[in-house]
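Usage

Read records sequentially. Each one opens with the input sequence:
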Amino acid sequence: MNQEHTDPYVVVIVGAGPRGTGILERLLANVGEIPVSRPLRIDLVDPFPPGGGRVWRQEQSSLMWMNALAGNVTMFTDDTVRCAGPIRPGPSLSEWAAADGTHWDVLGMSFASRQVQSHYLSWVFDKIVAECPDGLTVAVHETTATRLTGGPDSRQQVWLADRAEPLDADVVVLALGHQEAGPSEEDLRVAGFAERHGLRYLPSAYTADADLSGFLAGENVVLRGFGAAFVDVMALLTEGRGGEYRVEQGKLRYVPCGDEPVLYVGSRRGVPYRAKIAYRLVGRPAQLPWFFDAAALDRVLADREHLDFRTDLWPLMAKEIGWGYYHELFTAHPNRVTCDWDEFFAGFAAYDWDSAPLRELVEAAVPEPADRLDLAAVDRPLAGLRFAGFDEVQAHVRAEIKADVRRRGEFTHSADLGATAAMLSVNRQLRQLRAIEKLSARSMVQDVHGWWQGFFEYYTSGPPAQRSRQLLALSEAGVVRFLGADMWVDTDEERGVFRAGSASTPDSIEATALVEARLPRADLSTTTDPLLRGLYESGEATDDVLADEDGFEHSSGLLLVSTEDFRVLDKAGRPHPRRYAIGPFTNVRHFAAFATPRSNAVSFRQNDTLARGVLAVLADGDDRFEYPTERHTVHKGLTL
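and closes with the structure output:
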């Protein structure tokens, strides 16, 4: 290096949201164990306030809620986290709120607004900076990083939007969070159609950034998507415009203000995500993992050259979910079964999932059909159903939502939480499974990243139950209408309207507005972030591409990084010694930046690994910065 030895080492973190804040905390925690020979300065670059960043900033509607319980959110490590660095405990969101005293309504089993979470994250950031060790300084630059230059054997330059001179850095960490891509060909086609006919079209966007003011009172608006983005749009276009909810005779009722559009919503499933569970396990927790253990499976599958998801993995994954479900049903609610757990488990362990003997065992031991676990029905509750018209669709979907709210709100259905715990375990084990690399690229894309992740999020990452109750009230008030499963949208040039329907009914509707109610898909080749776009166009970064020998090829649109140490890989597959990246814009697909307390959270382990790698680079000095000449091996599977 060319600096004088009195000059500080500099680490620039681009992105000061929860992930950037977590990396900062791990750098400060580990610097005492991996000391560097000079003072250290850490610069964070983000146009939004540090701590919350863009998604969790204070300046957004109070109607935007978290979909995690306040007691299940923390930014601090605890003694369950298996990482090399020091453990530095701190309060969860609910513990902080209780101590702070200004958010008396934020309890462990409540759902805080994103504004409250923003306060917590700002407090976390300030606490971390206040506890900086000697010889270390932190600076925040509230601007956008527009470009990253510098060779592998020299310092890096991070160019900023608000000044001519760059920040010089020894190491750069990209923690940019969720990214937006430029419009696709389909977006442009639909936007052109809307413009020609004076209609309104909103492509995929982050709801807090979207302008919803153009949607007219009383007009039909089609929303394509039934997940978190839909819930946000629903809240802003109803209660956000002045409508209100009232409880009358024990039932939630929506009173329109008159400014609401009529929202027609549909999706592949045709029902909303399952509501968050509002109780704890009643029985003794099941031991997890049991049937789907990554280490054990890797040993069993070591000699297999190829794997099939549906025949080799899914049956064991489903059995693990069933194990969690029935263990809770039998140990917590013995009055609803006909035998004891040990007797049932002997047969359950012996039979294959979804085999005739297992179905017979369940039917004999669990008399009530509603107490039996049917994963296919859970995944596609409207599959095979055909209704005469939209009125029948409304009644059926309302019944589905009411049943879901009841199951997720009454502890008598705590077997659902047993299934949820098992699904979380399955998802963790799947990320650790080395044998997953033996799946084809097509299967990774369609079965793992596609179907499984969609099903997992649908079952475990839904809205608070109160949102589902509000959805019911809006439906009963005629403000929200359900389209059904396998929805479709056409552009009718002759009539100049959007037309929408579904496979659930022959009925269709005409609308003057369309909203893509889903988060933007990452696409490195068209990203709106100038820094990432520049790295991609220069070949200094590349996207994650999966391919098979039969010609199948798929680009995830995600920045390719090493799954071992999170270094950025160039187009030739070489890891850059001075550039790291982590988050939802990378192929490291686990991107939750904060975590449930006492869960050995993946995000904490990732942050610790990355931070210790950065400090090791600085501690080793010049000899560390050698540019590899060989291509880095990238695992095509999921990663820790």
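Summary fields computed downstream for this record:
- The two ends are 33 Å apart (CA to CA).
- The chain is about 35% helix and 15% strand.
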